[in-house]
Amino acid sequence: MKKTVAKDPANSRVPPPRSRSDLRLEESRVAELLDIASQVFLENGFAGASMNEIARLSNSSKTTFYSRFPTKEKLFIAVMERRMETVLGEVTAPLPAESPIDVALKEYGTRFLRFALSDEQITLLRIISMESVRFPELGERFYELGPKRGQTFLAGYFQEQIKLGHLVRDDPWTMAEHLISLLSGGLVRWRILGLQTGTRTKDKQQEHIAGVLRVFLRAYGTPTLMKGHQVTRSRK
Fold first, then answer.
1. Is the pLDDT of residue 9 over 60?
2. InterPro entries annotated for this entry (predicted)?
């Protein structure tokens, strides 16, 4: 007959919950690590980035580092998630409800291009484009974090503008997709290919935004809007 061995209460205790200061310290360390990883990825690309080098630069033990980020893919996704969360907050900040629609969309276009044409975002897009064929989860996660959120934000704004009678009754989701495609076409595409073509100048970007809004509002603006009752005449 087997003897029942009593468990030592000291060994069966649940570890005490960590304090808020400990959690904040851990979050700070992870943020610092991801900042370092982001720099390494941006400078060396995905293939050229070394996990061991990132661990060394962040002063992390390999055991701790690899327990949190077991693969380079998971680390890159964490870097991408952090960047998109930070930047998308600015791009999708509420548009001024009291402003005419073309003024509000000009502000959105300015935010969008400032984000989309940044060196960091262009490099990130290049890496994602190359790696998502081999690693589909990367492309899917990027879509969820960036394009889908941005399109959802715009669709909500357009839904309100339809109710106000400023835009024709159409699918807000499709309208949002069209505006984003118009904004990102040309300037962003050429930057991804390494062709500057003046995309970095503020005047060039504002000229591009003005042209996009003329096309978009001709397609979706109501007759009242296009007569100038709601749209300002300035093209600057």
1. no
2. DNA-bd_HTH_TetR-type_CS, Homeodomain-like_sf, HTH-type_TetR-like_transc_reg, HTH_TetR, Tet_transcr_reg_TetR-rel_C_sf, TetR_C_Proteobacteria
